[in-house]
Every structure is written in C-alpha cells, then in structure tokens.
Amino acid sequence: MSVATTAAGSAADATAADPTAQPGAYDRADWASAFRNVGLELDDVPLTAARGTIPAELQGTLYRNGPGRLERGGQWVHHPFDGDGMITALRFEGGQATLRNRFVRTEGWQAEEQAGRFVYRGVFGTQKPGGPLANAFDLRLKNIANTHVVRLGDQLLALWEAAEPHALDPDTLETRGLSRLDGLLKPGEAFSAHPRFDPGHHGARRMVTFGVKAGPRSTIRLMEFAAGDGPDGVKAGDLLCERRDSFKGFAFLHDFAITPNWAVFLQNAIDFNPLPYVLGQQGAAQCLKSRPGGMGQFWLIPRESGAFAGQEPQILPAPEGFVFHHLNAFEQADGTVVLESIVYSDFPSIGPGTDFREVDFERIPEGLLERFTLDPVAGSVSRERLSERTCEFAMVNPHRVGLEARHAWMAVAERATGNDPLQALIRRDLQTGEVREWSAAPRGFVSEPVMVPRPGGTSEHDGWLLCVVWNGARCSSDLVILDAASMEQVAVVELPLAIPHGLHGSFVEG
Ligand code: FE
Q1: Distance 160 CA to ligand 1 centre (A)
Q2: How many angstroms is it from 378 CA to the middle of ligand 1?
Q3: Which of 57, 59, 240, 399 has the highest CB neighbour count under 10 A?
C-alpha cells in the first residue's frame, strides 16, 4: 500500500492521476479482502502513528459506522449494506489517540448472534436460509443501524433510513436502545441516515433531517433539532420545527441538502414493485427499478425559519440520472439555488444472482460531480458537469454547509476516467477546478473522508482530512490524517482492527 512510503503518499495536482492507468490496476483480491466479519470489540486501545505525528490541535472523536458482520453460519449477506452496524470511535487529544469499537445491539443483531444464522431478511437481498418459502410474507424489517452515526445532545444516533435511530452512549458506545426521540417518532417510522448540520443560518447550530413515508403518494417529514443548548431553555436534541409535504409518486430519497431558506431534494425516477419481495424472492431494495424514460424532480421545501416559511414547495424538472449523495447547496443573490451532487447515469440495481465481491466495475455506472442551478421563479434547471473522475462521499467545510463553498473533499478512483474502487482523496477548488490529491493506490482503498476545521482557523481549507483506509497489504485498516489544504500526509496510524468498507461518519469536537 502506497501510504507505506512518503513518495506515494504525497500530494499532487489532479493531472498527476495517471491517465494511462488501466482498469484493474488495483488487485481485486486486495479490495475484496475488506469484506469480512469484525471479530473484536476493543476498549480505548492507545494508538501510535506508524508514520508522521498526530496533530496536538486535533481534539475530538471521529465516529464511523458501517457493516461489521457480513456472514453467519457460512452464509454471506447478499450485499454488504445488509451487514450489521459497527461503530468505531477514534478519539484524539493532545497528539494521542485511542480506538474503541462496538456493534450496535439491535434486536436483529442480538437474535442472530444467539441463533448463529440469519433470522431476518435483509433489505438488500439477504434471505433467511430455506429458500423463498422460508422468506415469503416475512415483511419484518431488520433495522441494522449501519449507515451513519451523529451526535445529538447527550447521545450518539446510529442511523438507518428506513426506521428509527438507535441511541448509544457517546463514550462507551454502549447501545441504549431504539430511540423514538422522546416520542417524536412512531414505532418503525423512517428517519433519514443523512442529517445535515446547519452551522447557524438561523442563530444556533441545528440538525436538519427528514423521514419519508413512501407510497403512490409520498410524504416527507422535515425536522429541525437544536444541536446544542440555547437560550430560553432550549436543550440539545429539542425539536425546533417540522413540516410535512406530500408529493405524487414513490419517493426514494437517501440524502438531501440545505440552504438557509430551502431543504433541497432530488426525487429520482424510480419505481417500486414489491411483489418479488413479498413472495420471498428478493430484498425490498432489489425491487427498486429506474422508470424507463422517466424524469425525476427537484423538490424545494421552504424551511420553517427561512424567508419562505409556510409556503408551498417548489417542484422543478430534474435531468436524467440518479443521485444518492449531494455535496452541498447554496442560494445566489438572484434567488437561484445551486445544488452540487454526485450523479450516476442510472440506478445501480442489485441483481439477484451477483456476488458483490465479484462486481464488474466496468459494467456499473460511476458517480460524477455535477452542479445544478435551479430557478424557482422561472421553473428552469441548468446542469454542468464538474469532473469526469469517479467520485463518492463528498463534503465541504462544516461551517460552509448551505453556503457557497470554495473547497470540496471527496473520495475518487485512481485513474482519471472510468469506474474503479475509490483509492484516492482529493480537495477540489470549486471555483478554479484545481485539484490536490493523496492516493492510497495500488493496495489501499479509501472510505468517506471527513474534513475537520482547525480550531481558530481563518481559511476554509485550514484543517485536516481524516480517513479510514483499507490496507490491502496488511489486511487491516489504517487511519490517515492529511493536511486538508495541501493534502499532504500528516500521519498514518495502523489500526489494530480490520474494518470492512464502511459507510458514513462524523467528527465531534471536544
Ligand atoms: Fe449515504
């Protein structure tokens, strides 16, 4: 893995990505070796940097979530998204770091630990042993709490978008249980795995999130929570405002974006045919299919504290393509809304017969960064592609969420075009297109990078980029700390834990 050498871990301009690199320049066995069970739960293990130095100013905890259990009783999950949520906490203080990890004690995890086999069906196609007959009409959802982890008030929330969050102790990672947020959520109510943290557009910091009730008409419940204690007795975690809006069609919404005045959704042109799911032949998510010739829609929902509070949503036509994740959104002086998103040419459906470890990257669409400009008055939308390089997991400086940001950090494929696993991290200057890069190729595979601003920093790119990297040479995980401005390597910590390819995480200062 190249992080083992200073030269391969150095920063470079985007043009340094080798345009002659062939698909398969990585070893598929290295990539697939990250699909494994986590067999350890560690308690505050002290870490030392194998290379470089952990910055003394870096103070707080990086929480990561992702599937940690992919096999039971010799049966593999059909898709890694069906793996049970495992939280990793990396704490930094005074140049020292420790690691703790825990599985989320969901009802499903506990039952399956006891049974030694799958006793629930997975949304992404994992079936219980015994074939369709054993699975038909079993419509229980296994809330696996594996998608994201955020701090709200005195608890961590392990998120999974189709049902309630699980509450965890932020220090011990002990599972407190399924949380209905003090009765706010009904049993089983959907609660997105993609909250956005408003840095203070309406005073104090807020967590803005949503839940979707999908059907022939779909309802979005938009909720805003206080992220910290405030005046007038407001406590962190208190619901400040909410609204519900219904739209025609089946809504598949994984993520959204916020501006001071809008919550911005992209409704993909997706249909849901539940029959194979009900009959025990497929997982629910496998029954999602793109609608041939169908067009998506942008839904702009006015935020209750914004200038358009109480008004109806604006609906605008969306171009072809499919979006899981957005980078950011912001408003321009003329009232237009800019949304930056990672766009796929089509919905990457999960075939019933494919082994996820054998996926042919060449045959599935890649994510590309695009910018949409939405004009709510004229009802028009324009579209611009910002890069041809495969990317995912993008973010801006947390202080710029909802505002125009100069810089974006994201995971990218090693070569300049074509679909491959994510092996490099970049900072992209959104104004000039300049790119600074750090690569873990050929044997390293990156996960979602998290940008942490330097305390008291004055420029938007002043801080660090934290990333858990799968080290194919060690068959284990490394924590990589980069300088967020230069993308130079600051430290590599070889973790005593092998963490499968993960999903989302967040940094909590303090
Ligand atoms: Fe996501």
Answers
A1: 10
A2: 31
A3: 240
241 burial via Cβ count (<10 Å: 0-12, 13-18, 19+)? middle
Q: Which of 24-38, 129-143, 241-255, 474-488 has the highest mean pLDDT?
A: 474-488
Is the distance from CB of 365 to CB of 346 less than 8 angstroms? yes
Q: How far is CA 149 from the centre of its chain?
A: 10
pTM: 0.94
Rounded distance from Cα 347 to ligand 1 centre (Å): 14
Q: How far is the CA of 328 from the centre of ligand 1 (A)?
A: 14
User: pLDDT of 429-472, one tens digit each?
Assistant: 999 999 999 999 999 999 999 999 999 999 999 999 999 999 99
Reported as a pLDDT band with limits 50, 70 and 90, residue 283 is confident
Question: 20 CA distance to ligand 1 centroid (A)?
Answer: 31
150: nearest Cα among 84, 83, 243, 61: 61
Distance (angstroms) between ligand 1 centre and the Cα of 148 equals 8
Rounded distance from Cα 255 to ligand 1 centre (Å)? 7
Instruction: Say yes or no to pLDDT of 9 above 50.
Output: no
Q: Exposed, middle or buried: residue 104 (CB in 10 Å: 0-12, 13-18, 19+)?
A: buried
Tell me how far the alpha carbon of residue 380 is from its chain's centroid. 29
Read off the DSSP letter of residue 215: S
Owner of token pair 């406590």: 235
Return the number of other C-beta atoms located less than 10 Å from residue 228's C-beta: 14
Instruction: Kindly report, residue by residue over 179-228, the tens digit of the pLDDT.
Output: 999 999 999 999 999 999 999 999 999 999 999 998 889 999 999 999 99
Confidence of residue 413 (pLDDT cuts 50, 70, 90): very high
Are residues 241 and 191 in contact, defined by beta-carbon separation less than 8 angstroms? no
Domain ranges within the chain, ordered by starting residue: 3-509
Distance 325 CA to ligand 1 centre (A): 6
For the chain, how big is the Rg over CA atoms in Å? 22
How far apart are alpha carbons 154 and 283 in whole angstroms? 35
Instruction: Judge contact between 136 and 121, C-beta under 8 A.
Output: no
DSSP conformational letter for 231? S
Q: How far does the centroid of ligand 1 lie from the alpha carbon of residue 52, in Å?
A: 31
Q: What is the largest CA-CA distance in the chain?
A: 61
What proportions of the chain, in percent to the nearest 5, are helix, strand and coil? 10, 40, 50
Residue 351 has pLDDT above 70, yes or no: no
Q: Are 253 and 326 spatial neighbours (Cβ–Cβ below 8 Å)?
A: no
How far apart are the CA of 448 and the centre of ligand 1, in A?
Answer: 10
Q: Where do runs of H (alpha helix) occur along 362-469?
A: none
User: What percentage of residues in the chain have a pLDDT greater than 90?
Assistant: 78
Q: What separation in angstroms does the CA of 94 have from each of 56, 97, 98, 485, 510?
A: 4, 8, 11, 21, 11
Q: Per the structure block, which two tokens stand in for 267?
A: 């409704």
Task: Name every residue whose Cβ is closer than 8 Å to that of residue 124 and which is 6 or more positions away in sequence.
Answer: 77, 78, 79, 81, 82, 283, 285, 286, 350
Check: CB of residue 338 under 8 Å from CB of residue 371. Answer: yes
